[in-house]
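Service request form, structural biology core

Requester: graduate student, group of Dr. S.
Request type: structure prediction, single chain
Budget code: on file
Notes: please return the result as structure tokens.

Sequence provided:
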Amino acid sequence: MQRMCRMIGLILVGVAVATAASGATAVTRDGKTYQGRVLKRGDGTIVFEVHMYGSTFNKTFKEGDVTITEDDAPAAATTTRGKDEPAEARRPKPPAVKKYAGATYYRIPLEGMVGKTFTAALLEASLADAASREPTVVILEIDSPGGVISEVEKIGAVLHRYSEKLRLVVLAEDALSAAAIAAIAVPDVFIKPLGRIGAATAWQAGEDGMPTAIAEKFQSAWRATARSMAEMGGHEPLLAEAMIDATIALHVVKDSGRKRIRRGEGETMVTRESRLLTMTAGEAVDAGLARAKVATLDDLRGELGVESWTECEGLAVPLAEWQGKRLARAETAFKGKIAAFKTNLDSAIANDPSRSDYVVHKGGRFTPASRKKWRRLAGICTRFLTKAETNLDAAADLAEEYPGLLTDPDMIRLEQEKLGSLRKRVYAEMNRQGLGG
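Core staff response, request fulfilled:
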């Protein structure tokens, strides 16, 4: 079978071809094994769909770096997905499209961290499903402390694509940081009585885990994104900028009977210098960012001028619930892998032969007992290093499938470099003859 695959690859050199491969096993040069199926070959690469952790994700290999063994059984036999997978782990399917008499509303829960449970992918799938059902209004229910700012542009692109197809409104409880900027990309924003919106400055975690400022060029780009999102929603861009830049003072002024926001002095203060803009529900309404405070969906229906409506059953609610549970399982697995990695790394370091005491002859050569001790500790150290590498590789695979798991995107890479450096040294010194080399 491998020979046949190589022959096919030679015939189709330089042409990317989607395969209809059944189940397969991919083994990399460094011994990592993946179960799944080949998706595409060509241009010197292989795209492999990996089946693990009850889900799937794609990895791209160079052809010379991996050996593929095709199985005769169907791909479903190599994965837990499908009929043998627990029902709660399966991605929900869209319910049948129903016809309703009168107005309908379609709910999309956007909760938790942006980039983890509040994602552009979830929003895209939900809005695509909503478009097939043609509800009167789609309600984006936002309750988020913020998250990854790079996800906001993706969310904005999704909202832009569907804004002409669907009537979108935001119902915000807490829309903070990245979630605040995502919310103002929609024209009609409503906010719950105890809700908040704002506080969108960008930051990164320092070495101690505490927030630190990022470079001005990144802050500048983020402010431009925020203004663009506000413009898309028809909101005052200065409000978005003041959520990011604490040096801006804003006031409300009346111009021909209409409320307008301007820098500097005015009739009603929105925010003063040295304070990042975060608004309560009442302040958001007073500043013209939110249309009204609403406590319930019935209150929202009244504000929209709809006499009565029915909830349109769709994919969004079960999809959000499934994604949350799936991420929770992944986080538990990730934490377990990282904990095991740290335990095995600590054990490897504790058995680093260079940390122990030895008896040497004149000239620095080990006694036979000390030479044996060095080799024994080196062997123990490398075994723990191998276990730690296995743990870290598993954590890296999870982080690749669930990018939101990593608060520090460089963590895996830095730990891999630390492991590699220690392993290289211990291997080089495995047969050391004395303290002098």
